[in-house]
Design a protein that fits this description.
single chain, alpha/beta, Rossmann fold, two-stranded antiparallel sheet
Length: 154
């Protein structure tokens, strides 16, 4: 899979997180589309293909794990990472059951974010777009951090 065929979808209701994720991925040459709700993500998935999905657990209109399940049903090849401020064992178990690859505890460290993206979509080289148009700015690398990220055990 490469970025000429696949986009990265970021679903988070916090505008600052969406901006940071889009800008951080852009800085490393990845294409990302960011939305703030499950409904927006499902609407986009009906006519766009995503190779990688970052989903916040607590969205205003639906549970992030349930959203990923719906996205995965429509796009079986999509790899999912859950993002949350506090991961419980129950949430980790639900992630595994939904087929998600990682449970990321916010804030997310930039180096880990980029490594996870590279593992799924390969080397960078695409331009960034968002639902509101092209990327407007970039951010310095230390703006995004990750704590306690871990692969989900099978």
């Amino acid at each position: 899979m490469n970025l000429t065929d696949q986009k990265i979808l970021v679903v988070d209701d916090e505008p600052a997180i969406c901006s940071l994720m889009r800008d951080a991925l852009s800085r490393f040459g990845y294409e990302a589309i960011v939305v703030g709700s499950g409904a927006e993500a499902l609407a986009l998935a009906s006519n766009s293909s995503f190779g990688l999905v970052f989903v916040d657990l607590n969205l205003p209109d639906m549970d992030g794990i349930d959203l990923y399940g719906a996205l995965k049903a429509a796009q079986p090849a999509a790899v999912g990472y859950l993002m949350t401020g506090h991961a419980s064992e129950e949430e980790s178990q639900r992630c595994r059951q939904a087929g998600m690859a990682y449970c990321l505890v916010k804030p997310v460290r930039l180096s880990v974010l980029v490594d996870l993206v590279k593992a799924v979509v390969g080397p960078s080289g695409a331009s960034v777009c968002s639902q509101n148009g092209p990327k407007a700015r970039t951010i310095p690398a230390p703006s995004l951090w990750l704590l306690a990220d871990r692969p989900l055990a099978s």
